[in-house]
Give the backbone structure.
Amino acid sequence: MRQTLAALCIGGILGAGLAVSQMMNPAKVISFLDFFGDWDPTLAFVLLGAVLAAVPGFWLARTRPKPILGEAFAVPTRRDIDKPLILGAILFGVGWGLVGFCPGPAIAALTTGLSGVMVFFAAMTAGMMAFQLFPLK
């Protein structure tokens, strides 16, 4: 129960941060990604703030034998760069550049009730389900 409450609180903080920083605004994200047009560098400060906020937590985690609300840290063991990773990164980047949404902000933007958000979320969910049914290997 404590894990669920912690996740709910932290998810709320993340969603609020995405809204305040305008990461849920596709026009803002697309202008950030438009390096050769009307580039808006302000979201770089969002990234910098996120990194500065996360670094102490990662440093603290290295000093602990296990998480406060878990049995073990979930640390990725694979470090290889393979075809599914490259293809996934390309698809992610193309999708993000075309519509200005990535999964986190899209989930947070569901609270707006806008039809475009709902369509994007449905397509994203369908893509995730298709991968579960037909994994790339």
The mean pLDDT is 89. The chain has one domain: 2-133.
